[in-house]
Write a structure and sequence with these properties.
about 65% helix, Arc Repressor Mutant, subunit A, 9 helices, 2 domains, mainly alpha
Length: about 190
């Protein structure tokens, strides 16, 4: 048996490692407890159910992937941050294969809602960060946004296209071209 790991962080570290090596589909509490050197009862003191452990593990992965976006003050141009976000998510998906596209499918029925809420919370933060950079970009044509198509709606649209590009493993150049043509050209 391994050295006993009894902190929440240790358990999450083992869970992330397991997902890295085996994916979500075979996530197994007994294997996690064996790797941690703890009993199932000890694990359930930290995470009352498998679903809560999976959600906490997913949240830990989201934090790891999106940590670079906690401070976007280095970005002055909107397309640069979109490109960086794409590359960062793509890199995270490489470290955790399939995570980005299928993680919410792995939750038990009772955990799907919480998992999706957590994912949407991260997406909301990412959109807010994108909006900050868009508004900071002094090259953006100020006349392109109005009540019918606000900068917030533009961010929603760009984020949807970004996710679609990631899920479909598409080249990012068309999206960046679209963004630049729209926000920097006079209409």
């Amino acid at each position: 048996m391994n050295k006993q790991l009894t902190t929440e962080a240790d358990i999450l570290k083992v869970s992330k490692k397991y997902i890295l090596q085996n994916g979500f589909s075979s996530f197994n509490v007994r294997t996690i407890t064996r790797e941690c050197g703890i009993s199932i009862g000890t694990l359930y003191n930290y995470f009352p159910s498998k679903t809560e452990l999976v959600i906490a593990t997913v949240e830990s992965i989201w934090k790891e992937i999106f940590e670079p976006f906690n401070n976007l003050s280095d970005f002055d141009r909107f397309p640069e941050v979109v490109k960086c976000m794409y590359e960062t998510i793509e890199n995270g998906n490489s470290r955790y294969p399939g995570f980005f596209s299928i993680h919410y499918l792995s939750f038990a029925s009772e955990g799907k809602k919480e998992g999706i809420e957590m994912m949407n919370s991260y997406f909301s933060r990412l959109k807010k960060n994108l909006l900050v950079v868009l508004r900071k970009d002094t090259s953006v044509n100020p006349e392109i946004f109005n009540d019918e198509f606000s900068d917030e709606k533009f961010i929603d649209y760009v984020f949807t296209l970004l996710l679609s590009s990631l899920l479909n493993k598409e080249d990012l150049v068309p999206l960046l071209t679209f963004i630049s043509n729209y926000i920097y050209k006079s209409h």
